[in-house]
Amino acid sequence: MSEATTAGASCPLPRDPVDCVTLAHGGGGRLMQRLIADVFAAHLGTDTGHDGAVVCAGGARLVTTTDAFVVRPLFFPGGDIGALAVHGTVNDLAMCGARPLALTAAFIIEEGYAVADLERIVRSMAAAAAAAGVQVVSGDTKVVERGHGDGVYITTAGIGLVEHAQDIHPRAVRDGDVLIVSGDLGRHGMAVMCARENLHTEPPIASDQQNLWPAVAALLAASVELHCLRDLTRGGFATCAVEIAQSAKLDIAIDEAALTVIAPVAAACELLGLDPLYVANEGRFLAIVPATDAERALAILRSLPAGRRSSIAGHIGPGTDGRVRLHTRLGTSRHIAMLSGAQLPRIC
Amino acid sequence: MSEATTAGASCPLPRDPVDCVTLAHGGGGRLMQRLIADVFAAHLGTDTGHDGAVVCAGGARLVTTTDAFVVRPLFFPGGDIGALAVHGTVNDLAMCGARPLALTAAFIIEEGYAVADLERIVRSMAAAAAAAGVQVVSGDTKVVERGHGDGVYITTAGIGLVEHAQDIHPRAVRDGDVLIVSGDLGRHGMAVMCARENLHTEPPIASDQQNLWPAVAALLAASVELHCLRDLTRGGFATCAVEIAQSAKLDIAIDEAALTVIAPVAAACELLGLDPLYVANEGRFLAIVPATDAERALAILRSLPAGRRSSIAGHIGPGTDGRVRLHTRLGTSRHIAMLSGAQLPRIC
């Protein structure tokens, strides 16, 4: 992680030690990376370069991953915390190329929360899990006093099985590879923000949250060589691209004209002063593949509901600093830095 | 679960539907059982009869489990939330007879929490994990606004490997089996309560939280036939005994003289009006074994640090209602019911 926290200097971090955790530490940007590196990875030795970790057990190559969900509000257009808690963890497994097998779910419920709303969340979770073909095999329930929670927090963990021999990890990215993005950007974050702030767009923005495993499974089934997969959650497309560039120690050139932001998302971002490239998605991913496989991968993705708007959006080039450059529609180019704090707190 | 929520009628439940979640729903008693049955198990189909669930993957027999930790205060004599989050999940795996392999850890941190304290928690977690021989392989960090959390909540999930052919589950309990309890009761809950309420006992009460896998591993290595294992967490010894009796549809007779409660725990319980048999432990378990294996199992447990005070505390007898009777030191006997609500909120 040390490269990831010192490179990308266009937006320098304060050099003073941070004494207290801030909302920005949860935003998916550089402050979060530094907290993870300095506090979590330093002591626990956890590999932070990927969405999940491989565990070998009894001859099986398993992937395990976890995510806490604290989204506010709990219900938003296109989804709710229950479906999100399934898709978020299923997608982290998918990004490791692992077929999702089972989930665990732990609930922290605030005293006074309506049982009917809890049931609505659990039903949504059950429907998402059934559709994804995973079972919620184990759970836990804790209740905290009024004012010490926020309705419901859900933490899911997932187990997936790797059934192929590919090594899908930023370290597998090569000079000359092609970056495919699976759809338009910024819907989930803006759907949640509009619901939270009571902003209305026409048409309304629905979250893109969905299960990405079918798309990954189709690429694997077609033997597309997958060098890296990453779902574009906290920190959005831009932060993910920078993370991969820094991990791979290669540069990435992005073609802005190949990125889609639908009109209501663009309008809401402009209103709130946000850059859609940094806004979280929950149903979009990027795939980095060798140039020889790019057109085939694109055709497969475009044939699926989760990838209809897929495009080739970038190219990997030589470089040791892990820089990402955006070639704009105007013909200019600009450096893309990692999000330094939290653009949107609590969107997942 | 339907038997479990309707039997044990000495302490009748209100028949009205419960509209809001209360602290008692998190206490490990009958209200929690009913919430789990009506809301979680009903929709998710999760098996609620055990501490973890078996997942078969690529030829391996795995167990997975999860627990959210919301203990207050975060630091208490004998432990802290970090070590507890490791031991709680490792112990749930151990109770399924699974060797703990890996943990995931998701943190929900309240804005403003001191990074130095967070680091102290993570260091404690790392030490507990290293001592238990498990790695924290994957993590997540979320930050919630001041007043929407309580310092730190940690959810761990664990993966363990079953390396034997035994079926350790309440359904394996038989008439004639013997119940062994691995030590004195009530320390963890009273250590946390004394820390929270600023009560001082002489000597001070330290939590019993510890890794129970070495004790289970020793029993398995000696081929002791293990019918059921259960760690005595929320709801304490009494609730666990009732849960098992109800799941097995057999009666259990407990010998009070075989149960140990150390003097400061007894004194603190008396002061707070609590029954130590219902107070949570985090380093005690009960093992139900055939009578022929009981003395051998007891000798093995007594040879280990986690089981020095083990005793044969009960016998399984015929019965279909799953009743637990306590034969007191005075020669009388009384019916033991499941905890109906929360005796002690937020002790784990």
Structural commentary:
Two copies of one chain form a homodimer. By secondary structure, chain A is of the alpha+beta class. Chain A is 31% helix and 25% strand. Chain A contains nine helices and 14 strands. The first copy, chain A, has helices spanning 2-6, 30-44, 81-95, 115-132, 187-197, 213-221, 236-248, 263-272, 291-302, and strands at 53-57, 60-69, 75-76, 79-80, 98-110, 135-144, 152-162, 178-181, 228-231, 251-255, 285-289, 311-317, 324-327, 333-336. A seven-stranded mixed beta sheet of chain A has the order 9-11-8-12-10-13-14, sandwiched between helices. In chain A, strands 1-2-7-5-6 form a five-stranded mixed beta sheet, covered by helices on one side. Chain A has a two-stranded antiparallel sheet with strand order 3-4. The longest helix of chain A is centred in the middle third of the chain and has 18 residues, at 115-132. Chain A is globular, with a radius of gyration of 19 Å. At the A-B interface, α2, β1, β2, β5 and α4 of A face α2, β1, β2, β5 and α4 of B.
Give the helices and strands, then pairings.
The structure is a homodimer of 348-residue chains.
Chain A: H1 2-6, H2 30-44, E1 53-57, E2 60-69, E3 75-76, E4 79-80, H3 81-95, E5 98-110, H4 115-132, E6 135-144, E7 152-162, E8 178-181, H5 187-197, H6 213-221, E9 228-231, H7 236-248, E10 251-255, H8 263-272, E11 285-289, H9 291-302, E12 311-317, E13 324-327, E14 333-336
Parallel strand pairs in A: 5-6, 10-13
Antiparallel strand pairs in A: 1-2, 2-7, 3-4, 5-7, 8-11, 8-12, 9-11, 10-12, 13-14
Helix pairs in contact in A: 3-4
